[in-house]
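Hi R.,

Here's the input for the zinc ion complex you asked about:
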Amino acid sequence: MPEGPEIRKAADAVEKALKDREVLDISFAFETLEGYEDILTGATVTGVDTKGKAMLTRFDNGYTIYSHNQLYGKWMIRNAYNYPKTNRQLRLAIHNEKKSALLYSASDIEVLRDEEVPDHPFIRKVGPDILSETVTKEQLRERYTSRRFFRRRWTTLLLDQSFVAGIGNYLRSEILFLAGIHPSLRPTDSTPQQIEKAAEATITLMEQSYRYKGITVDPDIAERLKAEGKTRNQYRHWVFRRSFQPCHICRTKIEKIEAGNRRLYYCPTCQAL
Ligand SMILES: [Zn+2]
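And here is the predicted structure with zinc ion in place:
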């Protein structure tokens, strides 16, 4: 499942194709949305924002398309009307003179008035989005130690989109590793240094993953392992998907466990109890 950094990348591509251009034609696969086709045709796209795993395509006439890709949604950007060969269901197509932005397989698409966006059920409860908003380490540290969150397990919190938007399964393992936090702990069990590191790692890992196409390990380590002939899966992360392989810091074998029905990877030495 794509996480915040992958969604922001997809939003960048959609924005590049559509921004500041007039919509010549738009079509929705859902009958309930067909009425918006006339409203949005002729409008100009002003930008594409993200809120965690949701995307907000903004128009200059006061409307916004909300879309959430869930597990299967996928955007494809093509030259205008040049549809790809795919078995996926086309759900939304936005065309301008040069490009077509095509959203396949997503089922969660809505058209909202701009003023309705903050009250949308997902947008209202979702936490800060590090890749679309200015979020400081101090703000995160406060959030991680707030009464609302600090008695819940890190493993549950980090996947809860109302905690921080856009963290998914690989970022969860990677943040806990860099913060040196054992997966059984809660913020209230963690030292101030661990909380500080978790706040810092949340920001740096999301930004790095966005900038380096999903690579979360230190870029120098990634380069070295790549030069040694390792595959992308072997050099991409600190711990995620690396069970039985040696930790990049201490050489202990990485372990895999289940946490909240999702797999989690950690180093028993760097993240000792
Ligand atoms: Zn280690």
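One thing worth noting: Strands lie at 25-28, 45-51, 54-59, 63-68, 74-79, 90-95, 99-104, 108-113, 255-259, 262-266.

Cheers,
M.
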